[in-house]
Design brief:
six-stranded mixed β-sheet; flat; alpha/beta; 8 strands; single chain
Length: about 525
């Protein structure tokens, strides 16, 4: 096998000669640049000295106006540079960092009326606000005892209320409802203790009830047995973020040495914030005691531990000694947040159900519109009109701004995706129709009707998901969801629309064969 011919090396002198013109040009360019900078510096210096001589001939008033003008131009230049440096950054980032303002009662009630008029079920939110009014009128101070299952919540209440019959079971999960107990503190404050169901039971069905009642309370006592788990930390984080008065009751402290207890308290304060009080408690219970007699005999008995809740009482009293109006205001804010969360969930569920109904309605309209087309191109006009109104109605449902040009742009981009999938969809629908007897020569129109149904259903679902998750119709993600929806469970959906078309076609044939009826469409 012959090798490629090698080129002779270029002599060094030849290479140097080739670079000589380039080096000469670089040298001339550098000299011209230095000369230009010198001339520019001399010109600026001369101009500055001339301006200075003229300014010295003016009075103080001119100096003040000149300095103000100079400062304004400098500020404008700095702002222009800042805008250039920040050009193209998402405008929503700064807004996203800001904490959402807690709702007030007037705004919440206005939203309730508006969404109720739109058909959103809001009875549970109205009951929440009615319960708040009742507690306001009663002047009750509610203290919620909150925490995971089997950490000693009911035992703690028994320690605070000696002689009160409270069900305590070592199996855990004894508290299935919210139980209320009246307690008068050592300072004479009358309180309502709310014993809440434990979090993270086997089925978790009571978690939401417990969290809601914790948000309705003036003060929350969170009971735990040591360092917080991830679930415990998440449950407390909601209360801390809302500013709810919170005391962490560290139970079963007899298991720790003094040094270990200090470390656990420091760890809890580090994870949940220095503003949260940590009170060690011992809720009682039983312990085994072994007695050794002088003759060597041993006897093991069970005796009741003495409850120790002095630190917790003092921490709770410090909250009660503050202005009661502050406690009421914090409680009201928590309830308003709870009501707003319930309203948001109800609105989201209502919109999803309504959006699904709109999408199915327009999908059926698209199918029947394709069947009713009487001339070439008519179906395109019908479907374009229906597609525009589908997007418009979904945007109105989600109260999202939608300009006609944006909606048309989205439909145009979706049309480009349809072109890439139309042949596959027609082939699939054609195979499905082979299972229906007696189709005849009108199968082409029926196939297009089914395809239009598939397209509208996929398009409507993609637009609804974008509006639901982002609050606006964003072309990129919505188009990706549209493409995914087109292929998702395609055969089953095509069969469903084919059955609809076939039933409509048979109804039309029956009407056409009746005496005195017109020609079948």
């Amino acid at each position: 096998m012959s090798s490629l011919p090698k080129l002779p090396p270029i002599p060094l002198s030849t290479a140097a000669k080739a670079w000589l013109p380039i080096r000469l040009l670089l040298g001339v360019g550098a000299s011209v640049g230095v000369a230009f900078m010198l001339v520019l510096m001399l010109y600026i210096t001369d101009l500055g000295l001339s301006v200075w001589d003229r300014l010295q001939q003016r009075g103080p008033a001119f100096w003040i106006l000149y300095l103000i003008l100079l400062a304004g131009l400098s500020a404008g230049g700095i702002y222009a540079v800042w805008r250039v440096l920040h050009w193209g950054r998402p405008a929503g980032k700064a807004r996203a960092k800001a904490h959402a303002k807690p709702p007030d009662e007037a705004t919440l009630r206005e939203r309730l009326e508006r969404h109720s008029a739109a058909g959103v079920p809001v009875d549970s939110i109205h009951r929440e606000l009615e319960e708040l009014q009742r507690r306001r009128a009663a002047g009750e101070i509610v203290v919620a005892v909150f925490g995971e299952i089997s950490v000693g919540k009911s035992s703690l209440i028994r320690a605070l209320l000696p002689g009160t019959e409270i069900a305590v079971d070592v199996r855990g999960g004894t508290t299935r409802v919210v139980n209320y107990y009246t307690w008068t503190s050592s300072a004479g404050d009358r309180l309502i203790l709310a014993d809440l169901p434990g979090l993270n039971e086997a089925d978790g069905s009571l978690d939401q009830m417990a969290r809601d009642e914790a948000l309705r309370a003036h003060v929350v006592i969170y009971v735990c047995e040591g360092d917080l788990t991830r679930d415990q930390y998440a449950a407390m984080r909601t209360l801390v973020d809302l500013g709810s008065p919170l005391i962490v009751a560290l139970n079963k402290t007899d298991r720790y040495t003094e040094r270990e207890l200090v470390l656990v308290r420091e760890r809890l304060a580090e994870r949940i914030g220095e503003q949260v009080e940590v009170a060690p408690v011992q809720c009682g219970g039983f312990e085994e005691v072994t007695r050794i007699y002088h003759d060597g005999r041993e006897e093991t008995t069970r005796r009741e531990r003495q409850p120790q809740a002095g630190d917790l009482r003092r921490a709770l009293q410090r909250y009660l000694d503050n202005d009661p109006q502050v406690l009421d205001a914090l409680r009201d804010t928590s309830v308003f947040v709870l009501a707003q969360q319930k309203l948001d969930a109800a609105v989201a569920q209502h919109r999803r159900e309504k959006a699904a109904a709109i999408v199915q309605s327009y999908s059926r309209k698209a199918v029947f519109g394709a069947l009713a087309a009487v001339s070439p191109g008519t179906d395109i006009l019908i479907q374009g009109y229906l597609g525009f109104n589908l997007i418009k109605e979904l945007c109105a449902l989600y109260e999202a701004p939608a300009r006609e040009v944006d909606m048309q742009r989205f439909l145009d981009l979706a049309g480009n995706q349809i072109k890439r999938n139309i042949n596959l969809m027609l082939a699939l629908v054609g195979n499905i129709f082979k299972a229906f007897p007696g189709i005849g020569t009108v199968v082409g129109g029926m196939m297009h009707a089914v395809v239009y149904g598939l397209i509208f259903e996929s398009l409507g679902k993609a637009a609804a998901r974008s509006l639901d998750s982002r609050g606006e119709l964003v072309n990129g993600p919505a188009l990706r969801m549209f493409e995914d929806n087109l292929s998702e469970d395609l055969e089953a959906r095509a069969k469903r629309f084919a059955q609809l078309v076939w039933s409509r076609q048979r109804d039309g044939e029956a009407a056409g064969s009746a005496p005195g009826s017109g020609e079948m469409i």
